[in-house]
Amino acid sequence: MTGQLILIAMALTFSFGGLVWARWSQKRLERDDRAGHTPAE
Predict the structure, then answer these.
(1) Does pTM surpass 0.90?
(2) Which regions span the lipid bilayer (predicted)?
(3) C-alpha distances in angstroms, 12 versus 8, 30, 36?
C-alpha cells in the first residue's frame, strides 16, 4: 500500500513538474529571443 502511494505521488509530481518545466522553458526561450542573448544564470 505504501509503495503504491509513493508511486502515485511520484507520477503526479513528475507530470506536474513536467508541465511547470515546459511552461518555464518556453517563457525563458521567448524572453531570450526578445533580449537577443541568454541571461547569466
Answers:
(1) no
(2) 6-24
(3) 6, 27, 36
